[in-house]
């Protein structure tokens, strides 16, 4: 029987590619967690659902919309009153406004809770080395330290695994194309408008990654 | 102006005593977080509200009832199908059924998120050395490791503080009585019946603590 593992899926490039890798290359029985944390738009949920249906895996949507209230105006990703900065404003910034306080730490502890509850030993997290900007809570050191906490558990040893933590986004896309991931059904942009804004930090990184591979992002092709 | 700090309040002896200490001895401006995580009963919320009203502090109730669904039958504190063990069953057990998977880790990450969002630098947590049984997520080592994570934050340095982590429960009550905490308005029992069951692990510990001080728990006095 295939080993049961947890994956945190955001509907973006990294975690979607990881989903395909876990299913098609590693043959895991993947339980997918999607966190709705009160982000300004939830377009990525449609994409997460699309891939889970395609691959016939269970998707558990966790409602964390209360986080929006705890965070207030501390993040451009949850507050309607804080504008999403463009890439030029975040270059070299230690903690851009697109950072969400302790969000990834919260997601991982919830995933650990679920893993222990269903007896899974691995939690997969699509953290990736950002090329143009970075957050402290997507680094190898961060994940190492959460694993240091999880190792204190007296009965259940669970590990967080981040196969892409040292990958650039272009490396991930290359891997995903081999796995036949259709990136038309992934969403990265921090704005929730019909087409990607192409100005926000994550759009800039996605653009660069496809350009590095001499490809056009299928999301930008006209229908 | 008094320094703004966060306290996680459960309505039990330890965190209630800590609330009085932070207000009356330390003169902090305390923001209280109470987590409703789908526990079998929520009697302790009434007690938490009582003290916050008495002390005129803000109480933020965070709805984590979805956790019950993630946890399933993995804890006697959230599943109606799992009986709360009595103290004899948990003595020497590394992880009794009254443990809730990663609950304290989840609470602390949410408190860190809130602290960063409102610009607070300290999160107080009433973890205490259990006399009769223990959990990995109330230990000094656990708190040290979460602080190791929080220290990676690039803009906001927040610390979790646990003044009672080396205290026995009797020491905490002694401290609380000096601060005039009325323990009639605190709840520990894992069962949600009218009076404490006196058999569950936390009742046993509470009984022992008052006995060690040659006192009777005011909660057990007839009205």
Greatest interface (CB-CB under 8 A), with counts per chain: A-B, 39 and 39 residues
- Give a count of the beta strands of chain A, DSSP E runs of length 2 or more: 5
Helical/strand content category of chain A: alpha/beta
- Described by the principal axes of the CA atoms, the overall outline of chain A is globular
Strand content of chain A: 5-15%
Low-confidence spans of chain A? none
Q: How many distinct helices of chain A?
A: 8
Q: Distance between the terminal alpha carbons of chain A, to the nearest Å?
A: 41 Å
Q: What oligomeric assembly is this protein in? A: homodimer
Query: What's the main sheet of chain A like?
Result: 5 strands, parallel
Order of SSEs of chain A = EHEHEHHHEHEHH
CATH class type of chain A:
Alpha Beta
Overall CATH architecture of chain A = 3-Layer(aba) Sandwich
CATH domain topology of chain A? Rossmann fold
CATH superfamily of chain A: HUPs
Radius of gyration of chain A: 17 Å
For the biggest β-sheet of chain A, the strand order reads 3-2-1-4-5
Helicity range of the residues of chain A?
25-40%
Quick check: average pLDDT of chain A? 94
How many independent structural domains of chain A? Answer: 1
